[in-house]
């Protein structure tokens, strides 16, 4: 029988085809084909078939290749090459079942990518799943570490990976082709007809394994990577996140054993500071085993961002080192963006905020974020919001941000603050169009994610924690005007939602900033807002003091508008301090000014105060007239709800229970339209009070229980309905 190589060369020459032409036809390299023709390498069936077709040999070339030309294949049970999945594989039951089911899926889904951030436990999950289904793969299971993200180690090249695979498939070293194409063809031939599991661990890029993953086989190839490897077009993808809190605590206790913290609360805190990242939890558990740390001391070290990463290393494993491998593989523009993201508050950053931080056009910012997302250094959701894991944020602040120059950092902070102040102003203007807002000189941002009042309130509801933090950021960076402006604009939302802690916290920063800016008018506005916060939270004496200080600042600034607002606020404080007559006098004064200057919404608020003061003095006709006029002036749904509640309270105090019940029902309906849980709870409490005053205790209890179901606190110091409900007549 003729030698395949010699016959191939003869037929090629007879057909007038060059070696270069044959290489192009069969998709093998010219060098490899030359070795085949000269008998230096063994030919595989795939190449023989391709050459036969290219030279129209009618199967005669293919017939020259016998089974003996191919390396022997292992039989009887296959190779058992999977590592131990570990004694401490904890949790992940749902993911394990889902991943195992995918491995047993149809042959057209033979490649899967298990991806997640460094330390998430991808390898442990992949090995556990492969072990669970190994019985369905009679030709065995192999594990390869491609070293794509191994500190201090060179990653395997595609050729090295192929050589290792072929050697484990019993191909003698002398029969391995010298070139990568030859290795790829031989690997595909060896895998064809086999049913194995290959776990390709620690893969950096699709190119590293494309030759292995691209063949036709009934085997399953399970890839683990810190990258999403989107270039593996035919692969299915399986993301791995951090552990659920309970499972993370179980992992800590499982690894630490008898040395684990006795206190469940402390153990839970420690796991939270570890970000529920399996690598971090295991390192902390190892620290407990090694001794020298109490649970409380280690918790405190983890709680401090300056020492957290140092606590998460044990001499051989390090969270910071694991992250650094991913970070150092980034090009400079992506490294810069990761560092700048650490300047954003610890919350998801909107696309516009990312663009502002980096000073980039939308398309360029999207491109960089996509690359960081693919590398599992950030998470980008379907809205475009970008978020960093807590430990990644700490790493970025400590390692990536210092690489950004101080001047660039300051400019980035100013851009971010300006963007968020402009966004908050735009949202506030839609939510409460008639409210006074300070001039900022900022333009309305393009691409806003809201276009009406409801959308603006939704945006504020999602963003206020970050915005409150930005007030502090602006203060720390000396952006005094932006600091007090942002706090001032946030006040309306904080009032609506009764968020007293962030209201006071932001305004304390803002007060220092306004004073540092030497602006008495701004100082007066912030003092007045602080007084409102203290008043609404029931601290009436402190509120009076703030409003009086505000009056002094407005006088220094010759700010008539501010002065009348401070007088109005002081009148409300006096009303709640049981000084109804003085409050009525001052509110009558400010009402006249508001009417004269066309400040309709402020006039409506003053009328509500006049109604409450008049009711407290027993002047019910005057009170009812003021309340009804306020209702007529109300434009916003929340103002209509508050005015309806005010009118109901006047009827209740006057003993007109039927009218009070009717008005409270109306107030509850309007509160629903305004999406105000506070005003609805107030109206329901009023209905309960009305029923109780009639002697219908069962109905009263029903209304009170419904009111109590809302996540709001009705303060009896400033709300008549709550004061009456908690009074001695109806105490439970």
Task: Provide a descriptive summary of the structure in words.
The termini are far apart. 61% of the residues lie in helices and 4% in strands. The radius of gyration is 36 Å and the shape is elongated. The chain has 35 helices and 8 strands. It is mainly alpha-helical and 732 residues long. Helix 23 packs antiparallel against helix 24 and helix 33 packs antiparallel against helix 34. The strands form 2 sheets. A 6-stranded parallel sheet has the order 1-3-4-5-2-6, sandwiched between helices. The chain has a two-stranded antiparallel sheet with strand order 7-8.
Question: Which helices and strands, and how do they pair?
Answer:
Blueprint (H helix, E strand, L loop, with lengths): L3 H11 L4 H8 L3 H8 L7 H10 L5 H4 L15 E2 L12 H11 L7 E5 L6 H12 L6 E6 L12 H11 L11 H12 L5 E5 L8 H4 L6 E6 L10 E4 L5 H12 L7 H10 L4 H13 L4 H9 L4 H4 L7 H10 L3 H10 L9 H8 L3 H13 L4 E2 L5 E2 L2 H11 L5 H26 L21 H24 L3 H18 L2 H17 L3 H17 L3 H18 L2 H17 L3 H17 L3 H17 L3 H14 L3 H17 L3 H18 L2 H17 L3 H12 L11 H6 L7
Parallel strand pairs: 1-3, 2-5, 2-6, 3-4, 4-5
Antiparallel strand pairs: 7-8
Fraction in beta strands: under 5%
| Overall mean confidence score, pLDDT | 91
Sheet having the most strands = 6 strands, parallel
Quaternary structure: single chain
Structural class, please? mainly alpha
| End-to-end CA span | 106 Å
In one word, what is the shape? elongated
